[in-house]
Amino acid sequence: MSESLWRSSVKDLDPYIPGQAAEEAKKQAELTDVIRLATNENQLGPSPKAIEAMVKAIQEAHFYPDLTCLELRTKLGALHGIDPENYVIANGADNIINLVIASYINPGDEVVYCTPTFSEYHKNTLLMGGVPVEIPTTKDHKFDLEAMLEAINEKTKLVIVCNPNNPTGTIVEEEELREFFKRVPKHVVAVLDEAYGEFINRENYATGVEYIKEGLPVITIRTFSKLYGLAGMRVGYAMARPELIQPLQRVREPFACNRVAHAGALGALEDVEHKNKTLSDNKREMEKLVKEFRAFGYEVEESHTNFLFVDMKQETGSIGAELASQGLIIRPCAAWGHPTHARISIGTAEQNDKLLKALQEINAKAPHHA
Ligand SMILES: Cc1ncc(COP(=O)(O)O)c(C=O)c1O
Protein backbone atom coordinates (compact mmCIF):
# COMPACT_ATOMS: atom_id res chain seq x y z
CA MET A 1 0.00 0.00 0.00
CA SER A 2 2.64 2.54 1.06
CA GLU A 3 4.72 1.81 -2.08
CA SER A 4 2.04 3.58 -4.09
CA LEU A 5 3.11 6.78 -2.32
CA TRP A 6 6.74 6.51 -3.41
CA ARG A 7 8.12 8.82 -6.07
CA SER A 8 7.71 6.88 -9.30
CA SER A 9 11.44 6.83 -10.12
CA VAL A 10 12.17 5.27 -6.71
CA LYS A 11 9.96 2.28 -7.56
CA ASP A 12 12.29 1.47 -10.48
CA LEU A 13 15.37 1.16 -8.28
CA ASP A 14 16.87 -2.17 -7.25
CA PRO A 15 18.40 -2.20 -3.78
CA TYR A 16 22.22 -2.01 -3.82
CA ILE A 17 23.77 -5.48 -3.47
CA PRO A 18 26.98 -5.04 -1.52
CA GLY A 19 29.78 -7.57 -1.10
CA GLN A 20 28.86 -9.67 1.91
CA ALA A 21 29.81 -7.83 5.10
CA ALA A 22 32.30 -9.59 7.35
CA GLU A 23 29.86 -9.34 10.26
CA GLU A 24 27.11 -11.11 8.29
CA ALA A 25 29.43 -13.85 7.05
CA LYS A 26 30.73 -14.54 10.54
CA LYS A 27 27.19 -14.95 11.82
CA GLN A 28 26.13 -17.18 8.94
CA ALA A 29 29.08 -19.54 9.07
CA GLU A 30 29.62 -19.24 12.81
CA LEU A 31 33.19 -18.21 12.08
CA THR A 32 35.38 -15.97 14.16
CA ASP A 33 37.71 -14.96 11.40
CA VAL A 34 36.49 -13.76 8.03
CA ILE A 35 38.66 -12.69 5.09
CA ARG A 36 36.77 -10.27 2.97
CA LEU A 37 38.00 -10.06 -0.61
CA ALA A 38 34.72 -8.83 -2.08
CA THR A 39 34.74 -5.06 -1.73
CA ASN A 40 38.18 -3.89 -2.89
CA GLU A 41 39.23 -2.53 0.47
CA ASN A 42 42.83 -1.88 1.51
CA GLN A 43 43.76 -4.84 3.72
CA LEU A 44 46.70 -2.93 5.24
CA GLY A 45 44.17 -0.73 6.99
CA PRO A 46 44.36 3.04 7.32
CA SER A 47 47.70 4.81 7.72
CA PRO A 48 48.78 5.24 11.36
CA LYS A 49 48.89 8.98 10.59
CA ALA A 50 45.24 8.89 9.51
CA ILE A 51 44.29 6.99 12.68
CA GLU A 52 46.11 9.49 14.88
CA ALA A 53 44.40 12.42 13.15
CA MET A 54 40.97 10.78 13.44
CA VAL A 55 41.40 10.01 17.15
CA LYS A 56 42.28 13.65 17.71
CA ALA A 57 39.36 14.91 15.63
CA ILE A 58 36.83 12.82 17.50
CA GLN A 59 37.46 14.95 20.60
CA GLU A 60 35.85 17.77 18.67
CA ALA A 61 32.86 15.76 17.49
CA HIS A 62 30.51 18.32 19.05
CA PHE A 63 31.58 20.94 16.47
CA TYR A 64 30.22 20.87 12.93
CA PRO A 65 32.88 20.06 10.36
CA ASP A 66 34.39 22.68 8.09
CA LEU A 67 31.62 23.20 5.53
CA THR A 68 33.85 23.44 2.46
CA CYS A 69 36.72 21.16 3.60
CA LEU A 70 39.17 23.97 2.90
CA GLU A 71 42.18 22.20 4.41
CA LEU A 72 41.64 19.05 2.37
CA ARG A 73 40.94 21.01 -0.81
CA THR A 74 44.15 22.96 -0.26
CA LYS A 75 46.16 19.80 0.26
CA LEU A 76 44.64 18.13 -2.80
CA GLY A 77 45.37 21.32 -4.70
CA ALA A 78 49.04 21.00 -3.83
CA LEU A 79 49.04 17.26 -4.64
CA HIS A 80 47.47 17.56 -8.08
CA GLY A 81 48.37 21.12 -9.07
CA ILE A 82 44.68 21.98 -9.53
CA ASP A 83 43.28 24.97 -7.61
CA PRO A 84 41.41 24.29 -4.33
CA GLU A 85 38.22 25.89 -5.64
CA ASN A 86 37.96 23.23 -8.35
CA TYR A 87 37.05 20.42 -5.93
CA VAL A 88 33.94 19.13 -4.23
CA ILE A 89 34.45 16.78 -1.30
CA ALA A 90 31.64 14.55 -0.08
CA ASN A 91 30.58 11.36 1.64
CA GLY A 92 32.49 8.93 -0.58
CA ALA A 93 32.68 8.71 -4.37
CA ASP A 94 29.18 7.18 -4.22
CA ASN A 95 27.92 10.51 -2.98
CA ILE A 96 29.90 12.32 -5.69
CA ILE A 97 28.27 10.17 -8.41
CA ASN A 98 24.92 11.04 -6.90
CA LEU A 99 25.81 14.78 -6.92
CA VAL A 100 27.00 14.71 -10.53
CA ILE A 101 23.85 13.01 -11.77
CA ALA A 102 21.54 15.13 -9.60
CA SER A 103 23.31 18.26 -10.88
CA TYR A 104 22.94 17.50 -14.57
CA ILE A 105 20.07 15.10 -15.29
CA ASN A 106 16.54 16.26 -16.07
CA PRO A 107 13.82 13.63 -16.62
CA GLY A 108 14.33 12.04 -20.04
CA ASP A 109 18.02 12.97 -20.32
CA GLU A 110 20.27 10.10 -21.38
CA VAL A 111 23.38 8.91 -19.58
CA VAL A 112 25.78 6.81 -21.66
CA TYR A 113 28.27 4.34 -20.17
CA CYS A 114 29.41 0.74 -20.69
CA THR A 115 28.44 -2.40 -18.81
CA PRO A 116 29.45 -4.28 -16.78
CA THR A 117 30.44 -1.39 -14.56
CA PHE A 118 29.76 0.21 -11.20
CA SER A 119 26.03 -0.03 -10.46
CA GLU A 120 25.59 3.46 -9.04
CA TYR A 121 25.49 5.15 -12.47
CA HIS A 122 22.37 3.15 -13.31
CA LYS A 123 20.67 3.74 -9.99
CA ASN A 124 21.26 7.47 -9.79
CA THR A 125 20.21 7.99 -13.41
CA LEU A 126 16.89 6.24 -12.75
CA LEU A 127 16.43 8.19 -9.54
CA MET A 128 16.61 11.49 -11.43
CA GLY A 129 14.20 10.22 -14.11
CA GLY A 130 17.04 9.91 -16.60
CA VAL A 131 17.55 7.12 -19.11
CA PRO A 132 20.59 4.83 -18.75
CA VAL A 133 22.08 3.95 -22.14
CA GLU A 134 24.22 0.91 -21.53
CA ILE A 135 26.77 -0.15 -24.16
CA PRO A 136 28.48 -3.53 -23.83
CA THR A 137 32.20 -3.40 -23.07
CA THR A 138 34.54 -4.70 -25.80
CA LYS A 139 35.47 -8.41 -26.04
CA ASP A 140 38.51 -7.69 -23.88
CA HIS A 141 36.24 -6.09 -21.24
CA LYS A 142 37.22 -2.46 -21.90
CA PHE A 143 34.99 0.58 -22.21
CA ASP A 144 33.95 0.86 -25.86
CA LEU A 145 34.54 4.58 -26.40
CA GLU A 146 33.75 4.52 -30.11
CA ALA A 147 30.36 2.87 -29.48
CA MET A 148 29.69 5.38 -26.69
CA LEU A 149 30.32 8.28 -29.09
CA GLU A 150 27.95 6.68 -31.60
CA ALA A 151 25.26 6.42 -28.91
CA ILE A 152 25.34 10.16 -28.21
CA ASN A 153 22.31 12.07 -29.54
CA GLU A 154 20.53 15.33 -28.70
CA LYS A 155 19.04 13.76 -25.53
CA THR A 156 22.43 12.73 -24.13
CA LYS A 157 23.55 14.80 -21.14
CA LEU A 158 26.26 12.73 -19.47
CA VAL A 159 28.85 10.19 -20.57
CA ILE A 160 30.62 8.25 -17.83
CA VAL A 161 33.90 6.41 -18.27
CA CYS A 162 34.93 4.17 -15.39
CA ASN A 163 38.69 3.90 -15.84
CA PRO A 164 39.99 1.57 -14.48
CA ASN A 165 36.66 -0.18 -14.74
CA ASN A 166 34.94 -2.01 -11.91
CA PRO A 167 34.47 -5.04 -12.08
CA THR A 168 36.80 -5.77 -15.03
CA GLY A 169 39.92 -3.91 -13.82
CA THR A 170 40.71 -2.79 -17.37
CA ILE A 171 41.83 0.59 -18.72
CA VAL A 172 41.37 2.08 -22.17
CA GLU A 173 44.29 3.34 -24.24
CA GLU A 174 45.32 6.84 -23.18
CA GLU A 175 45.19 8.36 -26.66
CA GLU A 176 41.71 6.90 -27.24
CA LEU A 177 40.48 8.46 -24.03
CA ARG A 178 41.94 11.88 -24.81
CA GLU A 179 40.36 11.77 -28.29
CA PHE A 180 37.06 10.71 -26.75
CA PHE A 181 36.99 13.72 -24.43
CA LYS A 182 37.83 15.99 -27.35
CA ARG A 183 35.04 14.51 -29.48
CA VAL A 184 32.26 14.61 -26.86
CA PRO A 185 29.84 17.31 -28.10
CA LYS A 186 29.39 20.55 -26.15
CA HIS A 187 25.90 19.69 -24.85
CA VAL A 188 27.29 16.58 -23.09
CA VAL A 189 29.23 16.51 -19.80
CA ALA A 190 32.02 13.92 -19.55
CA VAL A 191 32.69 12.14 -16.27
CA LEU A 192 35.77 10.05 -15.49
CA ASP A 193 35.42 7.77 -12.48
CA GLU A 194 38.93 7.08 -11.22
CA ALA A 195 38.12 5.37 -7.92
CA TYR A 196 41.08 3.06 -8.70
CA GLY A 197 43.11 5.61 -10.69
CA GLU A 198 46.11 5.50 -8.37
CA PHE A 199 46.58 1.77 -9.03
CA ILE A 200 47.06 2.16 -12.80
CA ASN A 201 49.99 0.00 -13.61
CA ARG A 202 51.39 1.83 -16.62
CA GLU A 203 54.07 4.48 -16.53
CA ASN A 204 53.16 8.05 -17.50
CA TYR A 205 49.54 7.10 -18.23
CA ALA A 206 47.57 10.35 -18.15
CA THR A 207 44.69 10.59 -15.64
CA GLY A 208 41.89 13.09 -15.10
CA VAL A 209 44.37 15.45 -13.45
CA GLU A 210 46.22 15.88 -16.75
CA TYR A 211 43.00 16.17 -18.77
CA ILE A 212 41.74 18.94 -16.50
CA LYS A 213 45.07 20.75 -16.80
CA GLU A 214 44.87 20.40 -20.57
CA GLY A 215 41.57 22.28 -20.35
CA LEU A 216 39.35 19.34 -21.30
CA PRO A 217 35.81 19.55 -19.90
CA VAL A 218 35.80 16.44 -17.72
CA ILE A 219 34.64 15.84 -14.15
CA THR A 220 37.07 13.46 -12.47
CA ILE A 221 36.02 11.39 -9.45
CA ARG A 222 38.41 10.00 -6.82
CA THR A 223 38.08 8.33 -3.43
CA PHE A 224 39.96 7.74 -0.17
CA SER A 225 38.30 4.30 0.13
CA LYS A 226 40.77 2.28 -1.91
CA LEU A 227 44.42 3.38 -1.97
CA TYR A 228 44.13 5.26 1.32
CA GLY A 229 42.25 2.54 3.23
CA LEU A 230 39.44 4.77 4.49
CA ALA A 231 36.38 3.00 3.03
CA GLY A 232 34.67 3.04 6.41
CA MET A 233 35.08 6.81 6.79
CA ARG A 234 33.53 7.83 3.44
CA VAL A 235 35.56 10.53 1.69
CA GLY A 236 35.44 11.06 -2.06
CA TYR A 237 35.93 14.06 -4.30
CA ALA A 238 35.31 15.49 -7.73
CA MET A 239 37.62 17.85 -9.56
CA ALA A 240 36.89 19.81 -12.72
CA ARG A 241 36.90 23.27 -14.25
CA PRO A 242 34.89 25.78 -12.13
CA GLU A 243 31.84 25.91 -14.42
CA LEU A 244 31.50 22.11 -14.25
CA ILE A 245 32.05 21.80 -10.51
CA GLN A 246 29.77 24.66 -9.41
CA PRO A 247 26.43 22.82 -9.68
CA LEU A 248 27.79 20.03 -7.48
CA GLN A 249 28.69 22.61 -4.84
CA ARG A 250 25.08 23.82 -4.90
CA VAL A 251 23.51 20.35 -4.67
CA ARG A 252 25.87 18.95 -2.02
CA GLU A 253 24.43 18.67 1.46
CA PRO A 254 26.21 21.21 3.69
CA PHE A 255 28.27 18.87 5.90
CA ALA A 256 28.74 15.96 3.48
CA CYS A 257 32.24 15.21 4.79
CA ASN A 258 32.32 14.69 8.53
CA ARG A 259 35.00 16.05 10.85
CA VAL A 260 36.65 12.69 11.58
CA ALA A 261 36.67 11.61 7.93
CA HIS A 262 38.16 14.97 6.91
CA ALA A 263 40.95 14.57 9.47
CA GLY A 264 41.56 10.97 8.34
CA ALA A 265 41.94 12.02 4.72
CA LEU A 266 44.41 14.76 5.69
CA GLY A 267 46.44 12.28 7.76
CA ALA A 268 46.38 9.73 4.92
CA LEU A 269 47.83 12.25 2.46
CA GLU A 270 50.74 12.86 4.86
CA ASP A 271 51.77 9.20 4.78
CA VAL A 272 53.56 8.58 1.51
CA GLU A 273 55.25 5.49 2.93
CA HIS A 274 51.90 3.79 3.64
CA LYS A 275 50.66 4.70 0.19
CA ASN A 276 53.77 3.26 -1.46
CA LYS A 277 53.59 0.08 0.59
CA THR A 278 49.95 -0.36 -0.42
CA LEU A 279 50.91 -0.04 -4.08
CA SER A 280 53.95 -2.32 -3.94
CA ASP A 281 52.20 -5.02 -1.86
CA ASN A 282 49.24 -4.87 -4.21
CA LYS A 283 51.49 -5.33 -7.25
CA ARG A 284 53.42 -8.22 -5.75
CA GLU A 285 50.33 -10.05 -4.51
CA MET A 286 48.44 -9.44 -7.72
CA GLU A 287 51.26 -10.96 -9.76
CA LYS A 288 51.26 -13.98 -7.48
CA LEU A 289 47.50 -14.48 -7.75
CA VAL A 290 47.48 -14.04 -11.53
CA LYS A 291 50.19 -16.68 -11.90
CA GLU A 292 48.44 -19.17 -9.61
CA PHE A 293 44.97 -18.54 -11.07
CA ARG A 294 46.32 -19.15 -14.57
CA ALA A 295 47.91 -22.37 -13.35
CA PHE A 296 44.41 -23.41 -12.18
CA GLY A 297 43.22 -22.88 -15.77
CA TYR A 298 41.31 -19.68 -14.97
CA GLU A 299 41.39 -16.74 -17.37
CA VAL A 300 42.47 -13.49 -15.75
CA GLU A 301 42.17 -10.01 -17.20
CA GLU A 302 45.18 -7.70 -16.75
CA SER A 303 44.11 -5.45 -13.89
CA HIS A 304 44.94 -1.83 -13.07
CA THR A 305 43.20 -1.90 -9.69
CA ASN A 306 43.32 -3.71 -6.35
CA PHE A 307 41.16 -6.59 -7.59
CA LEU A 308 41.08 -9.22 -10.33
CA PHE A 309 38.31 -10.15 -12.76
CA VAL A 310 38.65 -13.90 -13.03
CA ASP A 311 36.88 -16.30 -15.38
CA MET A 312 36.83 -19.51 -13.34
CA LYS A 313 35.29 -21.44 -16.26
CA GLN A 314 32.44 -22.63 -14.08
CA GLU A 315 29.53 -21.00 -12.31
CA THR A 316 31.04 -18.87 -9.52
CA GLY A 317 27.97 -18.61 -7.27
CA SER A 318 28.59 -22.05 -5.80
CA ILE A 319 32.37 -21.50 -5.48
CA GLY A 320 31.61 -18.22 -3.70
CA ALA A 321 29.25 -20.02 -1.31
CA GLU A 322 31.76 -22.77 -0.63
CA LEU A 323 34.51 -20.23 0.07
CA ALA A 324 32.17 -18.21 2.29
CA SER A 325 31.51 -21.30 4.41
CA GLN A 326 35.25 -21.28 5.09
CA GLY A 327 35.28 -17.57 5.90
CA LEU A 328 36.59 -16.35 2.52
CA ILE A 329 34.35 -13.88 0.73
CA ILE A 330 34.74 -13.13 -2.98
CA ARG A 331 32.32 -11.46 -5.38
CA PRO A 332 30.62 -13.73 -7.95
CA CYS A 333 29.70 -11.70 -11.05
CA ALA A 334 26.37 -13.25 -12.17
CA ALA A 335 24.58 -10.00 -11.29
CA TRP A 336 26.79 -8.29 -13.90
CA GLY A 337 25.84 -10.93 -16.49
CA HIS A 338 29.11 -12.88 -16.08
CA PRO A 339 28.15 -16.08 -14.24
CA THR A 340 31.56 -17.74 -14.60
CA HIS A 341 33.49 -14.67 -13.43
CA ALA A 342 34.34 -13.55 -9.93
CA ARG A 343 35.80 -10.27 -8.76
CA ILE A 344 38.47 -10.98 -6.19
CA SER A 345 40.11 -8.20 -4.17
CA ILE A 346 43.85 -8.48 -3.53
CA GLY A 347 44.45 -9.37 0.09
CA THR A 348 47.58 -9.59 2.22
CA ALA A 349 50.09 -12.37 1.42
CA GLU A 350 48.62 -14.52 4.16
CA GLN A 351 45.01 -13.97 3.07
CA ASN A 352 45.83 -14.71 -0.56
CA ASP A 353 47.65 -17.91 0.40
CA LYS A 354 44.56 -19.06 2.30
CA LEU A 355 42.39 -18.29 -0.72
CA LEU A 356 44.70 -20.19 -3.07
CA LYS A 357 44.75 -23.19 -0.77
CA ALA A 358 40.96 -23.22 -0.49
CA LEU A 359 40.54 -22.94 -4.27
CA GLN A 360 43.05 -25.71 -4.83
CA GLU A 361 40.98 -27.97 -2.60
CA ILE A 362 37.74 -27.00 -4.33
CA ASN A 363 39.30 -27.63 -7.75
CA ALA A 364 40.65 -31.00 -6.63
CA LYS A 365 37.13 -32.05 -5.57
CA ALA A 366 35.42 -30.84 -8.75
CA PRO A 367 37.91 -30.10 -11.51
CA HIS A 368 36.62 -27.47 -13.92
CA HIS A 369 36.74 -27.70 -17.68
CA ALA A 370 39.55 -25.42 -18.77
C1 LIG B 1 34.23 2.58 -9.77
C2 LIG B 1 33.81 3.01 -8.41
N1 LIG B 1 33.40 4.27 -8.23
C3 LIG B 1 33.03 4.71 -7.03
C4 LIG B 1 33.04 3.87 -5.93
C5 LIG B 1 32.56 4.39 -4.61
O1 LIG B 1 33.61 4.57 -3.73
P1 LIG B 1 33.37 5.20 -2.30
O2 LIG B 1 33.74 4.16 -1.31
O3 LIG B 1 34.28 6.38 -2.24
O4 LIG B 1 31.94 5.59 -2.20
C6 LIG B 1 33.46 2.55 -6.06
C7 LIG B 1 33.47 1.65 -4.91
O5 LIG B 1 33.71 0.49 -4.96
C8 LIG B 1 33.85 2.11 -7.34
O6 LIG B 1 34.24 0.85 -7.54
Automatic annotation (TrEMBL):
<keyword id="KW-0032">Aminotransferase</keyword>
<keyword id="KW-0368">Histidine biosynthesis</keyword>
<comment type="subunit">
    <text>Homodimer.</text>
</comment>
<feature type="domain" description="Aminotransferase class I/classII large">
    <location>
        <begin position="32"/>
        <end position="359"/>
    </location>
</feature>
<dbReference type="InterPro" id="IPR004839">
    <property type="entry name" value="Aminotransferase_I/II_large"/>
</dbReference>
<dbReference type="InterPro" id="IPR015422">
    <property type="entry name" value="PyrdxlP-dep_Trfase_small"/>
</dbReference>
<dbReference type="InterPro" id="IPR005861">
    <property type="entry name" value="HisP_aminotrans"/>
</dbReference>
<dbReference type="InterPro" id="IPR015424">
    <property type="entry name" value="PyrdxlP-dep_Trfase"/>
</dbReference>
<comment type="pathway">
    <text>Amino-acid biosynthesis; L-histidine biosynthesis; L-histidine from 5-phospho-alpha-D-ribose 1-diphosphate: step 7/9.</text>
</comment>
<keyword id="KW-0663">Pyridoxal phosphate</keyword>
<keyword id="KW-0808">Transferase</keyword>
<keyword id="KW-0028">Amino-acid biosynthesis</keyword>
<dbReference type="Pfam" id="PF00155">
    <property type="entry name" value="Aminotran_1_2"/>
</dbReference>
<protein>
    <recommendedName>
        <fullName>Histidinol-phosphate aminotransferase</fullName>
        <ecNumber>2.6.1.9</ecNumber>
    </recommendedName>
</protein>
<feature type="modified residue" description="N6-(pyridoxal phosphate)lysine">
    <location>
        <position position="226"/>
    </location>
</feature>
<dbReference type="InterPro" id="IPR015421">
    <property type="entry name" value="PyrdxlP-dep_Trfase_major"/>
</dbReference>
<comment type="similarity">
    <text>Belongs to the class-II pyridoxal-phosphate-dependent aminotransferase family. Histidinol-phosphate aminotransferase subfamily.</text>
</comment>
<dbReference type="InterPro" id="IPR050106">
    <property type="entry name" value="HistidinolP_aminotransfase"/>
</dbReference>
<dbReference type="GO" id="GO:0004400">
    <property type="term" value="F:histidinol-phosphate transaminase activity"/>
</dbReference>
